[in-house]
Automatic annotation (TrEMBL), chain A:
This is Dehydrogenase. One of its GO terms (molecular function) is iron ion binding. Signal peptide: none annotated. Pfam families: Ald_Xan_dh_C, MoCoBD_1, MoCoBD_2. It comes from the Bacteria. It comes from Paracoccus kondratievae. Residues 23-135 form the Aldehyde oxidase/xanthine dehydrogenase a/b hammerhead domain.
From TrEMBL, chain B:
Keywords: 2Fe-2S, Iron, Iron-sulfur, Metal-binding, Oxidoreductase. PANTHER family: OXIDOREDUCTASE WITH IRON-SULFUR SUBUNIT (PTHR44379). One of its GO terms (molecular function) is 2 iron, 2 sulfur cluster binding. InterPro entries: 2Fe-2S-bd, 2Fe-2S-bd_dom_sf, 2Fe-2S_ferredoxin-like_sf, 2Fe-2S_ferredoxin-type, 2Fe2S_fd_BS, Beta-grasp_dom_sf, Diverse_Oxidoreductases. Residues 4-80 form the 2Fe-2S ferredoxin-type domain. CDD domains: fer2. PROSITE patterns: 2FE2S_FER_1, 2FE2S_FER_2. This is Oxidoreductase.
């Protein structure tokens, strides 16, 4: 890569979308109001598995203020995809808008539109439902039992969502035969939920031409458009999806959640706009979680720590519908081919249906689970072999040219750089040699741990993706970028504007971003898979480069100079080597020989393969041996992102991911009653996230160790990475502190106390 | 349904509206007064996204009935700017430090931070953490929010010191 002096890229410019967020002027979907707006509400099943024998809405319909009620008798019976991605390996077609069968507690079974939210709510209670209960399958074992009843008629059978994913490379038997140490273990994890702050919300409005305008909080507006059009039987140009500001998504807001279809159908029936807004409780009941899992892992190591073989079986719990399970299972299973290089691997990944809430896409997408297990077993191997935990990781870290999980060679590997940097900056050796006791509190034991990760930017090869951008220079020299990428809060639009300004040679402030209107902006696959900056950023750079040529050609005419002799810097077009000959971009765009000014437009389309970002997380924990509470005291995340476009936004992604990762590892678990399937903690108090009092000091380090030629100036993704490495880093630090190994998350105080008791009993039995 | 005549002052402006007795202050602000900057994240007092200042005290607007605010002076996020062309130092600092990502919690956190700094111009790290303990942010890990509040507090204190000297 040639040496490039950046003017805008790499600087933490003011995020364009933030001014609206901090003044309260930014509009989120729930802030919109339309004349005649009705309120829609969903009646949710209070049973985990049943057939609906009878559903009587007559009392609800007669209730004053109620305008319409829908049940499975009233809506089109179209089998549709749970996750509306373009047809690919990540989709399963297993959902109806409303069905005569209930597959999880909280599933929508009817919908009401009324003149107020209160009336709609009251009407829900007037709907009478008679169920024929069916045996409920509430965990992975029950789903896999030979005589287990089937939750779906579709799929490969045995409650599998998709046929098992099987990956085999090298010769696993030979690998184990060469091993000096073989470790085997079982791992599992709970059900963390993304808990975005903005509850799901949408507004549907039909016009006289049978066109649907649809405001919604989604990461994938074009996928929502596609699913609505397909299920409602409309051409794409009759569905306009609008997304303004979004209050987070973290992957989950790629799905449709039943209410989109119901809202559109209610609005159609009532001939009035309808708004449907989830309560916080509904975001739990009907939202998406990370997949709970069971994992078995066996690895062989030489005396020097080198991996010789890896065998893994993982079962992901999909819940009642497939949603992203195919994608999660494929990505998660494939992830275990790498991170720590191993020529001989045999992997088996499955996803099973259960009668529990739906697991979907969530930051870390199947990889959180596998790397949690692998990175803990790595620590166990280090201890058994008498090698430093960081050292065994350096020995095995994935390298340039290794086959990546996606199946093609790793280009630019940053993992070693991340580990080496962290060893120094965290003072790894010094800390690990330090006293575990805390002089301030005799019950405390301190410990230090490390965890690593790699994660792809873009969903390739599961989805062949495409990023698009249109860049327009207006007559006055101002620039408009049109992008379909959603702004779910990451600062992606600002990064895209930076890329355009840099490539064009105009001031950052002159670029504005238009997004969130499927009638206007270029098609976009959605904001997920850590790919917006990588994929759409590259498309925006291509479009800006082309536009630059057009602007220079126009300027060349005015300056009577060859375009190749011109350069554009900060909105001024200069003749190279002749600083006195220049015009502004506005002058170049102005009227020419009596012909009125015009705007110039260029577009870019980019189809990437894959790049990988890397990270090593170093953590310090303090375990209270009396209360069992684990406090995460310090985290140093070291990330390689290739090229950082906006440092503060990138840091923000990392620190927020760590917050969620700490939660998953220590406190967060959406609990489903194992006998009824009912959720036990569908609220922000009972579902315990790390908040201001709980967060540790985070000292974020961003490296540009391994730029990827596929991203703009080498940039790679950063969104998903931070949530992956923190979990095993904490579990390993807990072991370092108290000598008790945990193979599951969340690790609760009760687990710690039980573990300490077990350890004490074992050591007294030995004595 | 019977409506009650409510008179409140919001962001310095006298407002008069008819609200149902069961209406929360949050719904009245968002729907009757058209001030949608204050967000509804849970509607049960768990998340702090709806924090507003009522007669000088921070309140979860979802937990207060609108009629309880009869005659009160209320400050919402829309009233935080001293004038339309100037940002409050907290808003400036939030921009600079990247303390707002998705932004849904930001209005509540900014209002809570204003309460904190009004009472305690130079809070310690522990005081900032405690001050925000009722406000959930799921995007930032809080680090940037703490940085922004510290920065704003320092600048506000310096500005006050300067105006005293002048």
């Amino acid at each position: 890569m040639t040496k490039h002096e950046f003017r805008i890229v790499g600087k933490s410019v003011k995020r364009q979308d933030v001014i609206e967020k901090i003044t309260g002027e930014g509009r989120y979907t729930g802030d919109y109001h339309l004349p005649g707006l009705l309120s829609g509400k969903i009646k949710r099943a209070e049973i985990a598995h049943a057939r609906i024998r009878r559903i009587d809405v007559s009392r609800a319909l007669a209730y004053p203020g109620v305008k319409a009620v829908l049940t499975h008798h009233d809506v089109p019976r179209v089998l549709h995809y749970g996750s509306p991605h373009p047809r690919s390996a990540s989709c399963t077609m297993d959902q109806y808008i409303l069905d005569d069968r209930v597959r999880f507690w909280g599933e929508g079974i009817a919908a009401v539109a009324a003149v107020s939210e209160e009336i709609a709510d009251e009407a829900l209670d007037l709907i009478e439902v008679e169920y024929e209960p069916l045996p409920a399958i509430l965990d992975i074992d029950a789903a896999q039992a030979p005589d287990a009843p089937l939750i779906h008629d579709v799929g490969p059978g045995g409650n599998l969502v998709i046929p098992p994913v099987h990956i085999e490379r090298g010769d696993v038997e030979k690998g184990f035969a060469e091993a000096d140490l073989i470790l085997e273990g079982e791992f599992s994890g709970g059900r963390p939920v993304p808990t975005y702050m903005e509850p799901n919300v949408c507004i549907a409005d039909w016009d006289g031409s049978n066109k649907l305008t649809f405001w919604t909080s989604t990461q994938t507006s074009f996928m929502v458009r596609g699913a609505l059009a397909e299920v409602l039987g409309l051409p794409l140009n009759k569905v306009r999806v609008l997304v303004d500001h979004m209050g987070g998504g973290f992957g989950a807001k790629q799905d449709l959640f039943q209410h989109e279809f119901l809202c559109a159908l209610l609005a159609k029936k009532c001939r009035r706009p309808v708004k449907m807004e989830f309560t916080r409780r509904e975001t739990f009941l009907a939202g998406r979680s990370r997949h709970p899992f069971r994992l078995w892992l066996r690895q062989g190591f030489r005396k020097d720590g080198t991996l010789t073989a890896r065998e893994m079986k993982i079962v992901y719990e999909s819940g009642a519908y497939g949603s992203h399970s195919p994608g999660v299972t494929n990505v998660g299973t494939a992830s275990a081919t790498s991170l720590y290089r191993c020529e001989n691997v045999r992997l088996d990944g499955r996803a099973v249906y259960t009668n529990t809430p739906i697991a979907g896409a969530y930051r870390g997408y199947g990889v959180v689970q596998t790397y949690f297990a692998i990175d803990i077993q790595m620590d166990e191997a280090a201890e058994k072999l008498g090698i430093d935990p960081a050292g065994i990781r350096l020995r095995n870290a994935v390298r340039e040219g290794d086959i990546a999980p996606s199946g093609h060679p790793v280009v630019g590997y940053g993992l070693e750089a991340c580990i080496r940097h962290g060893i120094r900056a965290f003072d790894w050796a010094g800390k690990r040699a330090a006293d575990r006791h805390d002089p301030a509190n005799p019950a405390i034991r301190k410990g230090w741990g490390i965890g690593c990760e790699m994660h792809g930017s873009s969903a390739y090869p599961g989805i062949k993706e495409q990023g698009n951008a249109i860049v327009r220079m207006n007559e006055d020299g101002s620039v408009t970028l049109l992008t379909g990428a959603a702004g779910l809060g990451t600062g992606a639009h600002t990064a895209l504007a930076q890329i355009v300004a840099e490539e064009l040679g105009v001031p950052f402030e002159t670029v504005s971003v238009v997004h969130g209107d499927t009638d206007v902006v270029p098609w976009d696959i959605g904001a997920f898979a850590s790919h917006t900056t990588y994929l759409v950023g590259s498309a925006a750079k291509m479009a800006a480069a082309e536009l630059r040529q057009r602007v220079l050609a126009r300027a060349a005419e005015k300056l009577q100079e060859k375009p190749g002799h011109l350069e554009m810097v900060e909105g001024v077009i200069l003749v190279q080597g002749q600083p006195d000959r220049s015009i502004t971009v506005a002058e170049a765009m102005g009227p020419s020989r009596g012909i009125p000014a015009e705007h110039l437009v260029a577009s870019g389309s980019y189809m990437p393969t894959k790049s990988y970002s890397f990270a090593a997380h170093f953590v310090e924990v303090a375990v209270d041996t009396e209360t069992g509470i684990i406090e995460c005291r310090k985290v140093m995340p070291v990330h390689d992102v290739g090229r950082v476009i906006h440092p503060v936004a990138a840091q923000g992604q990392i620190e927020g991911g760590i917050q969620q990762g700490i939660g998953h590892t220590l406190t967060e678990d959406y609990v489903i009653d194992r006998t009824t399937g009912r959720s036990l903690n569908a609220g922000l108090v009972d579902y315990k996230m790390p908040l201001s009092m709980d967060m540790p000091d985070i000292e974020t380090v961003i490296l540009e160790a391994a730029p990827d030629p596929g991203g703009p100036w080498g940039a790679k993704g950063v969104g998903e990475d931070p949530i992956i490495a923190i979990g095993p880093a904490i579990a390993n630090a807990v072991y370092d502190a108290i000598g008790v190994r945990f193979h599951h998350y969340p690790i609760t105080p009760e687990d710690v106390l039980n573990g300490l008791r077990r350890k004490a009993a074992e050591s007294s039995a030995r004595d | 349904m019977n409506k009650i005549h409510l008179e409140i002052t919001v962001n310095g402006e006298a407002r008069s509206m008819m609200v149902e007795g069961h209406r929360s202050l949050l719904d009245a602000l968002r729907e009757e007064a058209g001030l949608t900057g204050t967000k509804k994240g849970c509607d049960v007092g768990d998340c702090g996204a709806c924090t507003v200042i009522v007669d000088g005290r921070p309140v979860n607007a979802c937990l207060m009935l609108a009629v309880e605010a009869q005659g009160a002076e209320i400050l919402t996020i829309e009233g935080l700017q001293p004038d339309p062309d100037t940002l409050h130092p907290l808003q400036e600092a939030f921009m600079e430090h990247g303390a707002s990502q998705c932004g849904f919690c930001s209005p509540g956190i900014l209002i809570m931070a204003k309460c904190l700094l009004d009472r305690n111009p130079l809070p310690s790290d522990e005081e900032i953490r405690f001050g925000l303990s009722g406000n959930i942010c799921r995007c930032t890990g809080y680090t940037k929010i703490f940085d922004a509040i510290r920065t704003a507090g320092r600048r506000m204190a310096a500005a006050r010191a300067q105006s005293v000297e002048a």
